[in-house]
Amino acid sequence: MNRQAQPAERARIGAFEVNFLLGELRKNGIRLKIHDQPLEILAMLVSRPSELVTREDIRQRLWPSGTFVDFDNGLNSAINRLRGVLGDSAEAPKFIETIPRRGYRLIAPVEWLDAPAVTPVAEQLGSVGGLVGPRRLLHQRWLWTGALAIAIAAVSGFLAVRYFASQEKSALNFQPRDWVLITNFENRTGEAVFNGTLEYALERELSNSQFVNVVPRERMNDALGLMRRPLDSTIDAELGREICLRDGDIRALLTGRVEKLGTTYVLTANLVDPARGTTVASISEEDPEDSQMAAAVRRLSDRVRETLGEERSLIQQNDQRLERVTTPSLHALQLYTQADNAMRVGSVEVAAEMLERAIQEDPKFASAWLLLGFAYADAGDEPKSAPYFKRAFELADTVTDRERFFILGSYYEAAGHNPQKAVESYETLLRLYPDHFWGIHSLAGWYIGTGRMEEFARLAVRKADLAPSDLVVNATAVWAKAILDKDWKGAQKYRDHANALLAQQGDRTRPGIATWIKLLPVYQSWIEGNVEQAHAQLIQLEASGNLGRRQTGYAHLGFGELRRAEECFQAVSNRDAFVLAEGDLLFIRGDWFAVKKFLPSERYLADNPGDPVLIFMVRAGMWSDVERAMQRARQEWGPLDASGIEITEGELALAKGDDEHGISLLEDGLGSRGSVPRPSPTFFLASDSLAGAYEKQGRLDQALRVLQRASSEKSRTLTDPHWGPGNVVAMWMTSELHLADLYRKMGRVSDAEKIEGELSRLLIYADPDHPILRALQSRQHSDRGAGSK
Q1: Rounded to whole angstroms, what are the CA distances from 239 to 75, 186, 200, 254?
Q2: pTM of the full predicted structure?
Q3: Residue 212, SS3 per DSSP
């Protein structure tokens, strides 16, 4: 069989890296103990991924005739040891599939890490009867002859590459720290996941270089402003060149495209001399279709750097990608980097072990103390994490500003319980380093929790730009652009990314997000007033299957279809999710006392002090239960999520007749003296209660302002993907009905009729006994009766 030439030295399979030259197997950088026979079997499998390696092939390699008697037991033992090292199993294989009575097959993707050799590694191994490495010497004369020929060819090729690279460098006159502008890559694959992602990934890779500077978007925007072009303009090759010419100090322009040829992605980059508009180099890399092009982008970045004149040794040194944190110990830094990578893939225990070793190497390694705190916190051991956050805080003055402000923010957030200082630290960090991903992540959480929605939206979009392959992050950016910024067109980019990621990963990876994304057209049509179209879209999606029942039920609630919603809720398996959904139905039906039958766990109530079910419990007279939940929440949360607690306690005060205290709590919880908090079921319930309290005191103008503000939040009745579904639409409608009543009370009948007309139109599919629909019909009957007199 003829095979394409493969690298012969190192390969990566998942989290494992095998070095055939040294006879080593590592996982996340940590060397694993493995015997010769399992390693040689792995070499054979890696050299022929997805192909059958027969038992006879292995026997001839490992146990030639006369050297081993019990072949079956020996082979089974070697395979079992190999599976043990890889953490694999024969029943549910991730790496090695057993083909009964025939042999084995490697089913995991293989990424070769070295320059191509003439023959696959297993064929080289077969020629010498064993694994290449210090354990066995290669002494066949013909192999040395072949190796010499390969070396000559490789050197000739290397010299040719260096010659042409020098010519291209000369044409561009590129010097260390000169600027490169990367344009938007042309996507010819038809797969939206690659829109805007590859050029960003390439920018991140090139940013590892100490030789190349990548032009930031802010610098491009300066030129766009002078050109009177929109700042969000797509930077194609033509516009990129004009920006270079106007700027005057940008030495190179990088354009490119991605294509799909059969089952292979091809990524091509062109280095252009902006002064002349001529292409001085064209570079291509390939990846298989099951990849996300990360490896190809990395290789392309290295070749661009070398073409521009960066020394290969510097590129290889940068490619180690050690984290930029402060420690005098190189070994500690390597352990930290490996731990950080382990944390990103959820290997918290592995990360904790490496970080403990890093701290032993350097007891003053502040960032290692911090990351170890996060590791234990992620593992659910909050008490154990606290001393590590504290120690990082004590060492914060010994590190760079980038590390220090993140340490301060993390400490005040996780251990210090000082929200204001946490926010100030994160804000300072992002002013100095706008692309600090975890700083953005943390600050965005604070912004949304305190109602600073516009600032949250900005960070959510920025976070998606930094993580184009993260499904949840992109779905959140859709919500931020479409709902918070009311920019459905601007949300389309992130919506395309999310849909493409779902197509790659499957709905089961994130079923809630998958349903949320699929239902977006329904919510968009509804928000834009196209009720019939929205309902038709819902029915069509539901008929196609694969929708989460709870979210589908809430969508039906939005149209007033209570019975259909209840059918969906009955299919929900999670108890808390079911009872919360049933609680929302009881709210719509006004059956407060039946709430007692549908209570979530006490643990849920303490963890969610602003949940509407607590307000339902207040209205059902379950005051002692609510007070107990609030006491536990304050003990565990401290000042966090204060708005939710204040709203629930405000409802409780109003129910007990303490109107002044209740009004004060609701005003604080609703942000009446500041920015609008995140619209939620609780927001609309509290707005309704506060307006009622104002009315009771005769403060009609204040009641009107509260209800008008709630009315203006119709577009925000779609909750964000993190929060999950909620009966926000029905609660917004209740608030709208209250506003209509207030208008009538103030003599503004035409304003009331306008709202009532819209509610009637939104409920054209509602059950006939829907309470709001019956209230509207009653008003119409009263108006007709008054008109006939």
Answers
A1: 62, 14, 17, 12
A2: 0.57
A3: strand
